[in-house]
Specification:
8 helices; three-stranded antiparallel sheet; Arc Repressor Mutant, subunit A; single chain; 9% strand; 2 domains; mainly alpha
């Protein structure tokens, strides 16, 4: 009997990077995400098993990825606010939503060199401090995913709409029988 394959938090940033870059190598994925090529390979294998990556060219099924981000990510990888610390803004404090949602507190990924202070959440990717400078597009997407993970309905709805646009997924029309 085969073991059940389950997604890991690192798989989400890998999928988002694959959605943005055509046919990268595992070394390139590892360099961007700050993970080893073998970790990138393992993530791709789990994404394939979940139906989020379609073929040997590392093509992301954007509709399936969006559906998972919209409906599943907050259940598969729940985030809880933890003690306040200095860090990198995320969720509704991140670059995509900070102009839409005004809050007295910043939600952050803990980082000694971070520019903000507030409650922390554990990021899906362990090495995130380089993202705002080296990979701002991926940083923006991960902050939107965090807004889905911890946000209230308004924050989630805004984040979902921005994720839909970023992934190029068309809104489906409801069909009633």
């Amino acid at each position: 009997m085969a073991d059940q394959i389950a997604l890991k938090p690192v798989d989400i940033p890998v999928a988002l990077q694959l959605a943005d870059v055509a046919d990268p190598t595992y070394e390139q994925l590892g360099d961007v995400l700050g993970i080893s090529p073998s970790t990138a390979h393992g993530a791709v294998q789990r994404l394939r098993a979940a139906g989020l990556v379609q073929d040997e060219h590392l093509r992301v099924n954007k509709n399936a990825l969006f559906e998972f981000l919209e409906h599943g990510v907050r259940y598969a990888f729940p985030a809880a606010l933890q003690a306040s610390a200095r860090g990198i803004p995320t969720a509704f404090s991140g670059p995509a939503l900070s102009t839409e949602i005004v809050s007295d507190d910043s939600v952050v990924w803990a980082a000694v060199d971070g520019a903000a202070y507030g409650p922390t959440i554990t990021p899906l990717l362990s090495h995130v401090s380089h993202l705002p400078i080296r990979h701002p597009a991926l940083y923006r997407l991960l902050t939107l995913v965090d807004a889905v993970r911890i946000g209230r309905s308004r924050e989630r709805a805004l984040a979902v709409n921005l994720l839909r646009s970023a992934l190029g997924v068309k809104e489906r029309m409801a069909v009633y029988g």
